[in-house]
Every structure is written in structure tokens, then in C-alpha cells.
Amino acid sequence: MTSPQTFRIKSFGCQMNVYDGERMAELLAAQGMRAVGDKDDADLVVLNTCHIREKAVEKAYSDVGRLRRDDGSKPLVALAGCVAQAEGEEARSRSKMIDMVVGPQAYHRLPQMIRQAAAGRPAVDTDMPAISKFDALPRRRRTGVSAFLSVQEGCDKFCTYCVVPYTRGAEISRPARDILAEAQQLVEGGAREITLLGQNVNGWTDASFGGLATLIRSLARIDGVERIRYTTSHPINMDEDLITAHAEVEELMPYLHLPVQSGSDAILKSMNRHHTVESYLRTIERVRAVRPDIAISGDFIVGFPGETDADFEATLQIVDHVRYASAFSFKYSPRPGTPAATMENQIPAPVMDERLQRLQARIAEHSSAFNCATVGKTIRILIDRVGRKSGQMIGKSPWLQSVVVETDAPIGSLLDVAITGSGPNSLFGDLLVRAEAA
Q1: Residue 417 in domain
Q2: Domain that holds residue 97
Q3: Closest listed residue to residue 204, CA positions, set 139, 244, 136, 156
Q4: pLDDT at 1
């Protein structure tokens, strides 16, 4: 087989996977390969998988199977990401279409693996070295107006339902100097908003530098960085310095994604979440005390083993108390190898379905109320994409809402708009005065 000249990467799941997909694309482009669109026939297809949901493995193999062409041929196929890490050598036993299996800490070795696979020798690499991949990746190049920047990977929390410690490894923080250098490259490539990523991003630390708050303050001093966000945070890592940064750093957006998962202390203990409802709410109060307009987002799991009706009602109560601007909610999904998968009192699917519907309806009420409260305000948005209708552009509010406005301003512009209406998924605004062009 000849060496591939074109490639396509399809990423599933979390924002960290999106970042990894972008970095793999940069790595392959640096080897002289050309990216093609979803509908184009690529010489190499990388499926960058997520393992967080129950049927993730089956979906991954189904996606692999669909890559076979009508004439019976196929591209080179790389199974990457967390499913690849979990499956390892077994992946090729289950599907001979897979030429490469590469874990999330090993994708910097893709060029060597591609050469090996093209020569007819399948390659598997699921090693998890201490974050050495970043040293092997190419310099960041042209990017969008909003860019992800990975600062921390892995997890030491070992929530009983989660596979991340097994597929991403132990918590590792990148050195501050490397992060700041990459941020500078992103700005030079066109980024105006940077979102710091990590499985427990607010656990990031550099012994000679400081914690996440210090990093955010340093990022804010980079000329061209207009907005800073971070995700995903763990409640026990929300220290006072980080909370204070929300009041003091103008570039840090008033948005905090802080998963609670359940409103029941009994379930939180069973989940091994390391926080209680009281400690979580106390953190929210501290953040709101310094930044009253902050939007709080969260994650919820319903139907965790042993969850009673009273436990679920407690979750609805915390939703009402916090008044989330947005939240992700899921039915509990047993993952092989995790402690929760073998717990007693697994919840029947119909019960989980009913609880999820009730929870999502309650979250939607508060999200709608949050969006409606923005109507009548003048806010600054960052234009990041073209709207559906002619003359429309869409920008991001400080609270991560999509705002539709009629303007000819280019992507990357910061505009002041008066919010005139609210819909299920977006706000609508009238342009006032162009604040700053890209």
C-alpha cells in the first residue's frame, strides 16, 4: 500500500477529543498530508473515539465497518482515543479493517505508525508516557477565533462510574511555559478566545509557577487574548485564588462549568465524588459573591445504582437552588471495569428514562429563564460563525450563549449588541456600534 496523501479525522465526545483531533490534523499536515472533507474519499481515516457512554465500543466498530467502499476497498484506518486505549490489541482482533490502534497519550507517534501500516504491518500503541506527546507535536498554526488549549490530562479522583483514570491515566499538568507558548501561537493564528482544557482543569499546577488562577492571569497579559474560559472543573479544586480571579481578571468570562452529578449526599458518596451537597453549594455561593452575574453550568447523572426517589428529588432541589444556565444530563451508563458497574440495585431503564425527562425539563426551565433575563441588556459578543440567513452572523456572549445579529462584521469581531429576544437555543440582538474588528 502506498503512503496516504489525504486524511480525515472524525472526533467524538468531549472537548479534549476535539483538541486532540485538531492536534492530530496539525501533525499529519506537517507530514505533507492534506485534510479532506467528510464526504471526500480519504486515504487515511482516524476515528477519535470516546468511551464515556455504554455503547461507545459497539459504535466505534460500527463506524469502522462503514468505511469499507462500494468496490470492497478501504482507506487506512486508525482507531484513536479512549476506546482505542481501552481495547488495545483486542481492537484488531475484533475488526481486521483497523490498521492502527493509538491511545490518547500516544498519537504523536502516528507518523511512524502510518508508515508501518502502509507497509502492511499493523501498529498498536497505547502507552501512557508522562505527557511527552506535547513535545513531539508541531507548532500551532492557523486556528479559529476560539481555540482549545489542553493544560492538564488524566484524573486521580476515581469516581466509581468513570473510565477516564483508566483511559487517560493519572493527572498530569503541562508546564506553564509550554502552555503560554502555545497560547501565543494560537493568538498569532487568529484566536481571540482561549478555553483551557483538562479532565480536572482547576487541579492544574506548576510547582515553580502556581495554580490555575496564576496561569489565567498570565494568559490575560498576552496581547490579543480577549477572552479566557476553562473546563471541566472539579468542586474540590475551586480554591480561593481561582474564585478571586473571576472578580479580578476582566478577560476571564463569567461562566463556570462545575459538575455536581447528584443532589444526594448518599449518591455522591457512592460515586466517590469527594464533595457533599453542602460543600458544593458553599462553593457556588463564594463564586457568586465575587461575580454575581456568573452563569453556572453542570453535569448530572440520573439512575446511579441505588438512587431512590428521594435521592432523585434531592437532585431536582439542587437544580432549583443553583438555577443552572445550562447543564448536561445523562442516564447512568455502566462501564466495564468501573466499581459502579457491579454495584447492586441497578436502576431499571424505564425509571431512568422518566427521571431524565423530568430533570431535563427542570433544567430547561432555568436555562430559559437565564436567557430571558438577558433580554434588554447590552452585551459584547465575539463573532465566531456565519448565520443561517443572509446577512446574519452569530457571536458568543460572555455567558456562552449564541447571539444572532444582522451585520457584515467579519468573524473575530467584538461587537456591542442590544439583546432583543430569546429563543430555545439562542439570543437575538441589534447591532449598536462596532467595538473592535478582527
Answers
A1: yes
A2: 6-125
A3: 156
A4: 66
Q: Report d(CA 422, CA 284) in Å as an integer.
A: 26
Say if residues 194 and 230 touch (Cβ distance below 8 Å): no
Cell output for 24: 492530530
382 touches 395 (CB < 8 A): yes
Asked whether residue 244 is domain-assigned, the answer is no
How far apart (Å, rounded) are the C-alpha atoms in residues 255 and 296? 6
pLDDT tens across 205-219, in order?
A: 999 999 999 999 999
pLDDT in tens, 266-314: 999 999 999 999 999 999 999 999 999 999 999 999 999 999 999 999 9
Residue 73 CB neighbours (<10 A): 8
Tell me 409's DSSP state: P
Percentage of residues in the chain having pLDDT higher than 90: 73
At residue 219, φ and ψ (nearest 5 deg) are -60, -40
Q: Mind listing the pLDDT tens digit for each residue in 395-421?
A: 999 999 999 999 999 999 999 999 999
Q: Is residue 396 part of a domain?
A: yes
Beta strands, E only, 76-133: 76-80, 100-102, 123-125
- 368, 359 in Cβ contact below 8 A? no
pLDDT at 3 over 90: no
Tally of domains within the chain: 4
- Asked if residue 83 and residue 10 are part of one domain, the reply reads yes
**417 and 333 both lie in a single domain:** no
Rounded to 5°, the CA angle 310-311-313 comes to 60
- Pick from 373, 392, 415: which residue ends a domain? 373
